[in-house]
Amino acid sequence: MLKVENVTKYYGDLKAVDNLSFEVNDGEIFGLLGLNGAGKTTTFRMILNLIDDYYGTITLDGEKIDYSKTDKIGFLTEERSLLTKMSVVDQIVFYGRLKGMSEKDILKKLDYYLDIFKISEYKNKKIKELSKGNQQKIQFISAIINDPKLLILDEPFSGLDPLNVELFKKVILELKGKGTTIIFSSHRMEHVELFCEKLVILVKGKSVLEGNLKKIKEDYKKKKIKVIGSIDVDKIKKIKGVIDVEETKIEYIITIKDDSVVKKVFDYIKTVDDITKFVVELPSLNEIFVSIVGDKYDE
Amino acid sequence: MNKFYYLIGQSLKKKIKSKWFLIINILLFVGIILFINIDSVISLFGGDFNDEKNVIVISDISDTNVYDTFSSSFNNNMEILNNDTKYKISFSNDNKKDIKKNIDEDDILINIIDNGNTIKAEVISLDKINNVFYQIITSSLNDTKKVVSLYRSGINIEDYNNINSNIEISREVINDDKSVDENLELIMGTIFPILILPIFMLSILLVQMIGAEINDEKTTKGMEIIISNVSPKVHFASKIISGNLFVIIQSLILGIAFGIGLIIRNNIGSEATNSILDFSMIIDTLTKTGIMDKLYFILPLTIVLMLLTFLTYSLVAGILASMTTNIEDYSQIQAPLAIISVVGYYLAIMSPMFDGSILIRIASYIPFISGVLSPALLMMGQINIYDVIISILVLILTNYLLIKYGIKVYKEGILNYSSKDVWKKIGKALKNK
Questions:
Q1: Is the pLDDT of residue B415 over 70?
Q2: pLDDT at A141
């Protein structure tokens, strides 16, 4: 289990991370979200012990993370961290050896993953000769070659097409099944929703929202009601607690203040004859993120 | 510890396995061997320098035998100057006009003409004459002119030679450290720059290589992965050690090439004696000056100085590279290091000019330049073994301080991707506990 407790990091006078705490259990996928400069990369660096001058404690399975533990960690950086003049095999062997693996084990795993990602023919090619997407696959393989206990993925889907996102998803879920603790950051909220059970949203280094994703969505007061039928938009807008009514080509999307407004809207809908759809939906993570981060960022 | 050795091996393998290393070393190998045997190589390709010159002497002088005088002087001069040019010298009774009409490209016609109490001469050839050969002709004509003039003035040649001969000097230097033979300065001026050039070049190569390697890892952000697996201290040490091992290997390769060149010279190039690299003369001079007897301490001290200097350069290069984000920034920041190295090189090759200078003695203690300057001054006898030991101690202290404080800077800079305020960042890193 990864435990981050009351962690604060200063760069000069700037507080990059402010009293951050969270826990990630074995086999759990955790999302670390925030705008650029929110403190995500600094947090990753502190977890990896790349930064050690911070307040608070970070432990993996109850022990402080130092260079004796890093063999159990996999890290995929946001930017390409490949030595582009190397061949694929040399690159993976290099990073694998730095994880304390034997060359034989590395080559065996490399063949397995190259096959999974359908890039076996690039094994002896130079990294710089590969496409952006294939470079990302190699980078991902380098992060998981050691079957990590803790896997940190900083924007893992960058440069990938939807088919390759599916491939990544499959491998990430496989690792989760093996008990790997996974933390990842992404600007693509639909990806976070796909994987994460728990998350924390950072604004200017401070946690503004954290917890179980499902509960966060349920607790988020603003909801949406989707309706198909001949409704009177002006009448709906006059209902107390209705924030907005948006008309799309197919349906009406009614944004309400909280759950108490659902009954009032439903009472009106019952009076309309041709209603074919009435669904109360939880907000998307993207909506929650934009709402919370936008408000806090303006403060 | 395994990761540390792996990093050293990996870094070294990357450099040695590159095709550039192979190409450059093949070129260097061939170049050094050819340079040492340059005279044999020139002879091998042939040319008109081996054609026999035909020196034809004509003269209108009858009171003295100018041909005998001239030919005797000419033969002597050819022998003294060790000139390899093949020649035949003869007197002709034909007239100038006839000889000129049939002159061949290897013929040189010398017409010695009566000129009152003395003589003058004409030298006629189809093409330009080799400079050394022409000087020998000129010198022989001057000798002939002297003999004819003395004869016509009634002065005995022996009396003249006594007056004109050099004073006999018995040379003794009491201070054992000083060179006995002033010819050594000439040797040091010509041979020493060639000998220390590899040290100078390897220092520059070391600085460039370490900077390029660290910046390559930083630019690609591969450094994030590396430093998340090995500490900055281990990474720094691996770069320094692999860089130094590389220059040692490169030095050995240069040494082997030099040795092979000498072996080839001894076996196939022994006939060629007209080389700028007359090793027997150099070794003779070094033996006469006592340097050969002192090699047992000069050589180890020079090697220690060289290795410590390489270490100093590599430590500074590693520290500077950690604070920069790309090779362009690094090239700028390491420029002073290259300038210091050039200054050291020039001071070393100009050392014969600074005999007795306190400033140059103090300069020989300065790290970065002591590696080339101290051995030069020691061989010249301008400093003694204790001065060299001081230079070594200063280098050890410098390296200790560079390691102690450099690791702080390296740790701070290696994952820093801002190229702003580099010196400020270094200062800040040094203040960190």
A1: yes
A2: 96
